[in-house]
What we know:
59% of the residues lie in helices and 5% in strands. By secondary structure, the chain is mainly α. It has two domains: 17-137 and 183-301, no CATH class; 142-181, no CATH class. A three-stranded antiparallel sheet has the order 1-2-3. Strand 1 and strand 2 form a beta hairpin. Helix 3 (82-99) packs antiparallel against helix 4 and helix 8 (207-225) runs antiparallel to helix 9 (240-256). The longest helix has 27 residues, at 48-74. The chain is globular.
Amino acid sequence: MACLPRRRDETGTWIGLNLTWYGFFNACAYVFGVTLLLVMLATVNIPVGSSAAVILTILVICVPASRLLAWLIDGKRYNFTIGGATFVGVLVAPLAITLMPSLIEMPQRPIKTWLAAIVIAYAFGEGVGRLACVSYGCCYGRSLEDSPTWIQRLFGRRHFRFVGETKKASYEGQLMDVPLVPIQAITCVVLSMIGVVGLTLFLHGFDAAALITVAVTSQMWRFGSELLRKDNRGPGRISVYQLMTPITIAILLVIAFQPSSTPSVPRQIGSGLEVLWQPEVILGLQVLWIGIFVFTGRSQMTGSKLALHVHHEHV
């Protein structure tokens, strides 16, 4: 996306810091997901302050976890894992929702209502976030040559080719300019469609159905889509991230089927959209975008050198 000169080497050439489209799309995905989550929670009359407290708690834990788990599981210190961060989020979110009322004043709402909104926002967020994978060439699919015949026919004219030595598919998978299954684009479409179904159910008051539908389908897709991926997912045919999916589904299903003593609240779409006009929301989302971009957009896998000179013919 851009290169910023940081310091000069002994030859006078500037050593640059690369700012990536990966970070740009990641920041957009986080902000889109959080924006949608704030709107959904506002439709059930949860104040922005209460929503923000829970969301911030989850993000403060899950965003660093996306890098820490990639380091612990894959041995990749400078990588990120959405699958690992999602698993941590499933563990953290119920605790944050349960404990937050003891710290701040907030209305009583069923935990399934909170989690339904969270998983829907996650589905949309990861769907948009897969554009970051397209830009960087990570989470890449198998080559069509090594895929079954029906996949070759299906994606023979609709595949990805990553060109350039700084694309992950090139330097890790040795698959530069090779037709690959466009798994990132498929995931973007699938998760966005799942999000639409879940959002429809949520706005009609079917919290448990929304939670079950989005949780099961999105996690099943996560498990199955890895079978079409070629990037390094750790040792064994079944990755650690795939093993996390049944645990994630089980936790969310247990919560979805729990009886609730708090009645469902009618959805007020107008009150949900009104939060987008509050200055603190607008500024908060901008700060979030900047923070995520700084965290994920400063490339530590690629470098650059910049040579600055004068056009003497223009003097």
